[in-house]
Amino acid sequence: MAIVWFLLALIAALPALLPPHLFAHIPFNQVLVEGVNLLYDNGVPPLFSPQVAPLVLPAIFLIWSLIHLFTQKRPFSWWVVPYSALFIYTLFVFTQVRVGGSNPPFLMERLKKDPLIGSILVILALLLEATLFLLFAMISRKLNRRYRERLDKRSKQNRRVVKQPESPKPIEVTEPQEEEPALVFPPIREIGNLKSIEPIVYSGRVKVEDDESILESEEEEPLERYPALKKRLEQDKEVDPIKIPTKIPKRRVAVPPVVTETEIPQQIEVAEEPHVIEEVIEEEERDMEVLSGVGGLASSEMGVDALLTRQKIRYNYPSEDLLDTYPEVVTAVDEETREAGESLIATLKEFKIDAKLVNIVKGPTVTMFEVSPAPGVRVSSIISLSDNIALQLAAQQVRIVAPIPGKQAVGIEVPNRRRNIIGFKDLLPSIDEHDFQVPMVLGRKITGEPVVIEITQTPHLLIAGATGSGKSVCVNSFIGSILYRRSPKEVRLILVDPKIVELRVYNGIPHLLTPVITEPKKTIKALEYCLYEMERRYKLLNALAVRNIAAYNRKIVEKKLANERLPYIVVIIDEFADLMNTVGKELETMLARLAAMARAIGIHLVLATQRPSANVITGIIKSNIPTRIAFMVASQIDSRIIIDETGAEKLLGRGDMLFAPGWDPNSIRIQGAFLSDEEVERIVAYAKTQGAPDYLDESFFEEEEVEESTYDDADDDNSDEALFEKALRIVVERQGASASYLQRRLKIGYNRAARLVEQMEEEGYVGPPQGSKPRELLKFPE
């Protein structure tokens, strides 16, 4: 296109540059002159002298040619040429208005009627075009920069050199496919070491280096940083003739040897995976553990197999066919409801209260009659008549909302004669309407509007209500919401069930961090793990200079610092009143600290109890958990303990609740979603087919022995030998070595425990790492 504009510039310049006697011999010279004059008369502003004017059009074409050359590598700047033509034409119209010209006729006939107004309009058009030009220029500049960065990134990847192993017959591998990721990963030095955070993040200082998370082959990571890996590689060179592959293999293809006529063909077997690759995978996973996933994640039952199973199998959400369908909610106001409203107004008039019925809202459980009292009528006088209204309407309970938030009316809630069931299946589509990280289905308001909350906004939840009020069904709907819309890589669960029978059905789902906990002491251990994980995550957030887990997950993906995001952790404790009676003070302190600090790093609490007394729901717990749900309770005192207001004693049970969000002073009456036991069993049975759970190491829940003396990283060198002998005795007793286990037993930092394990490996007492399993004990000390 640049050549075309350049040729047009030469053609337009011929009448002005060539002498008349030469120009007369050019073919179609008259057509050329007429075309150039037409452009001058209808598009070029008459702002130049007669000597310069013939060169204006060639200059414009030449400038456009240069613009096309300039935008060859800037594809988002193509609009400059047509936009400049529009600007030149607007300037031409302005000059025509000022000199009283006649071109273009369709504009000039209107603008000549009032030249001043016409000039102002054209000037405004010029200013608008100039403003839009600056806006488009900034946008195209950003787009062009992103385009160049993408090209540079591709070219850098193409220039990346991969060293091939020195072998006359290299192992042929096929490229991995995205649909089914391979279970064997390359060595750390082949894909580069993550340099953003060191493995000592648990107690050491963290170092961040931007945009250097991947090392090229010319900058291979020295093996001195991995003594165990270096030692194992040297051993493999001596005994294992198989060369180490340099790419991620999907499957190995054996190269058949050349068979001569004298040789007998033999069956070619596929070479087994070299053992050294497994070691590299373990080292890489240990380095990546500090960046993503859950700290200390291991499975004592499944070992490495469980971890690989969950990485291989992609979690598929359960089908809605597993859920039951219930009749639709009827919200139409019938004649019976209107008669009840007229009876309500008549009852108020009997007590000399003048009011009128302004609206009727029929919900799934109750019907709200909106009553507007006359001027001078006290609202408290209507509230005191709740029992008389219930008697007149033959209702079980009548709850009065005075006044209705945002309206000049008093709401009188009367139970429906036939209650509707709010099926969990009907509320599932409402989850997709919100971009929530951890959605939880509650139910429907009186108006029929579905209610779905975001646990990260609450950020914790307190549920209380009497037996049979629907508390357990509400907890089941919370867990069902997570199973239906979030994978185990996004949300992990810790379930505590002192009653043993309520949540035990969820054992074995892939979202669990631990089996369902039923013992108070293990509950304390689980909360200790949450505190430990909270401190670890705060170090990660501090390393990347972000404020919450959502920003952290975005940043590690943008900078490619980790393979997985940090999952949210939801701790659900059913009937924590029993735990408060056994380990009350310790439990209260841990819950208060988690509730106060764990919001930003993605750990959230859901506490449920059927005994809302002051010694169970203490002031410390209430102050740190502002969002609460009250089901039917026995008295106004219990209602005030839960939601700091009365009204829960007027509820009807079976899922009828008052939701008091921490961000709104007014509570909301909701009919909770119903999820039957049969539906829960079907959902759990499906979820178990999506992979085995990765539980925390069972050693974390073992009883710790009280030591007479403790060690820390500040001990002098004289204690190192004694500490090593003590650690070695612990390893012999346990028949395996684990840095985290030594850290808890010896009361030392993680760095020092890891150094003790490495020292044992160097001296031959324990073997190399085995992924999530403890290291194998190779020999006993003398």
Can you characterise this structure?
The protein has 782 residues and is α/β, with parallel strands linked by helices. The chain has 5 domains: 2-158, no CATH class; 172-290, no CATH class; 320-325 and 420-688, P-loop containing nucleotide triphosphate hydrolases (Rossmann fold, 3-Layer(aba) Sandwich), CATH 3.40.50.300; 335-415, Threonyl-tRNA Synthetase, Chain A, domain 2 (2-Layer Sandwich), CATH 3.30.980; 706-782, Orthogonal Bundle (Arc Repressor Mutant, subunit A), CATH 1.10.10.10. The chain has helices spanning 2-17, 20-23, 29-42, 56-70, 80-99, 105-111, 115-159, 188-191, 227-239, 275-288, 304-312, 335-350, 379-383, 386-393, 424-432, 471-485, 520-544, 549-558, 576-597, 619-624, 636-643, 677-688, 720-734, 739-746, 750-762, and strands at residues 172-173, 252-253, 355-362, 366-373, 399-401, 410-415, 439-445, 450-454, 461-464, 491-496, 568-574, 603-609, 628-630, 656-660, 668-672. The strands form 3 sheets. Strands 8-7-15-14-13-9-12-11-10 form a 9-stranded mixed β-sheet. Strands 3-4-6-5 form a 4-stranded antiparallel β-sheet. A two-stranded antiparallel ribbon has the order 1-2. Helix 5 runs antiparallel to helix 7 (115-159). The longest helix has 45 residues, at 115-159. It is flat, with a radius of gyration of 38 Å.
Number of individual domains = 5
Strand content: 5-15%
Which shape, going by the Cα principal axes? flat
* Sheet of most strands: 9 strands, mixed
Report the helical percentage. 40-55%
CATH architecture of the largest domain: 3-Layer(aba) Sandwich
CATH structural class of the largest domain: Alpha Beta
Number of helices: 25
The CATH fourth-level homologous superfamily of the largest domain: P-loop containing nucleotide triphosphate hydrolases
How far apart, in Å, are the first and last alpha carbons?
Answer: 85 Å
Radius of gyration: 38 Å
Average predicted confidence as pLDDT: 76
Under CATH, the topology of the largest domain can be stated as Rossmann fold
Report the count of strand segments.
15
- Biggest sheet: strand arrangement: 8-7-15-14-13-9-12-11-10
Low-confidence stretches: 161-167, 169-174, 176-221, 239-290, 296-312, 705-718
Structural class by secondary-structure content: alpha/beta
